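[Solved] Which block belongs to which protein?

Original post:
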Amino acid sequence: MHDDPARIEPLASAPDRQPVIEHPRAWYVSIDTTSQGESRSVAHISNIEYVRWLDRAAELHLDHLGWTRQAMLASGRMWFVARHEIDYRAEVHADEHLVLATWVRDLKRAKSWRDTVIWRPSTQNGEEPTIVCTASTLWVQVDLESRRPCRVDPEMAVALDPLQPPRSPSTGVEPCM
């Protein structure tokens, strides 16, 4: 028996068979579920686990780009979730293998929308993958001292590779210090 609700690990490359992904350079992770992630009342994975997957995938993507949570804390800033929009499209059970793709849709000053698709890979030749969840998360970068939104550094904005190019900096949102 596993102690963790799921094992989540980055994939070296995009899977051969996948649903349509909007971003040509999405970030991919594998998810292996366990019974620890099941709901207390129904034998399927809890919606709380999906939120954990979204957060962990975003964290792994930032780690890969060089902005670990430790580096973000040292810089005095952090990304916070302002909103999740989640569509649960199929049940997931313990001991299943899933794939998650995530990417930054847009980046505007201190805010960023990140999209995610989670699917069950095809098990038979010719079978299409089954999408189990789609989600959009609004992230806001916050200055940890002032607790106010702060502008994303241009270097980070480029590395995040948003599907929609970022707008030029404008007034109203302070840069992080």
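(Second protein starts here: sequence line, then its structure tokens.)
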Amino acid sequence: MYKSPTYGKLSIEQIPDKILMFYNDHLKFESQMQIIIGTDSQNFDKTKVVSVVAVICEGHGGIFFYEVTHQPLIRDVRTKLHVETNDSLRVAESLVETMENDRKYEEMYLNCPIAIHVDAGNSKNGKTRELIPELVGWIKACGYDCSVKPDSFVASTIADRLSK
């Protein structure tokens, strides 16, 4: 079950309708719109994983939806990033499947690129730097654009706050 500060609880299948409403309401701005998916996780007694679907109209705001799941404790950074990336790709594929199977989403689907934000950065002393090429390659091989820190705000800001 997903949650939205705007729409409350929703299933993944209901999200494209809300995205379409946002898209249609914001066409008047003639600004680039995009759908961005990002996931972050935090360790507690289990690993809390938060996946976020954000829809952004540049210069005119956005909306987001999120899902919280729990996994057995994941201590290894590489495994955590693989779980996060896999979760983002799962969400993206669910949205794409719904949008590709209904013509009412066609214009939006063709005009709103879908991107994945990864909570990994290029910091010289960071633990995630060496993992970036494989994660970006994996995401691009699945057909999505990809951003890493400092540009991966959906994962490193929205999902990060919700995971704490």
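Accepted answer:
You had them paired correctly. Confirming on the second one: The beta strands are 2-4, 8-10, 33-43, 47-57, 62-71, 114-117, 145-147.
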